[in-house]
Amino acid sequence: MNHSRYQGPLAANGSAICLAGLDWPQLWACVQGPLRAEGYSTGTIKTYRHVLRSFSRWFYSTPERVTARAVKAYILALTDRHCSWSWTSTNISVLRAVFDHLGGMSVCATLVTPKRPQHLPHTIGRPDILRILAAADTPRDQLLLGLLYGCGLKVAEACSLKWADVDAAKGELRVGTGRTARTVAIPSRLLPLLARGVAICDAADHVFRGNRAGVHLSPRMAEYVLRKAAKVAGIGQPVCCMTL
Question: What would the pLDDT profile of 76-92 be if each residue is shown by its tens digit?
Fold first, then answer.
């Protein structure tokens, strides 16, 4: 949800919404028109409505009586309830868009959107990874997990690979498109299997086929393959494709 496009009041007539005398349903009736005019999706508009409902139930008064102090207290209440970073940021963005940009007020002027928390990536040791790779019960699954680990691929990159992307002679994979395109070396243990695939498969086919012709394996199914292998390998901690 991108609120950066709000540079000023976006009421339908080009001026700020007059909040005097409006109740919350009436405010919403005034707000949803400009949002639709800006091309916001149905899901984003529902989020705006949900935030305004939540705030109105907490505020217990009319929109015109909203103050900077009240908005700040509401955001602090969200923090006290241990709401997520994303939900708190969404509330700030919506209230700023509605009251400051659409309503012509400045009740959110001093609010600072919290920074996204930084978490160290979860990793597991090489012995556990090798146990997972060995626990995959089909050549396809072993190849999938092997490429995720050995080539450092993102799950979507691995799932969308085609045989045309495999250069068996050079031992390389062409990954991604446009600015993200790159070439990575194929681990020697996987090269014979990929070379055989290049020899017998159509270059336009996906390396990892889905359940329908022309469709590749879904990232969700790739995650399932990994979790299944980790369970068989007896890995107690949670793993995902990014772990590899």
Answer: 999 889 888 889 999 99
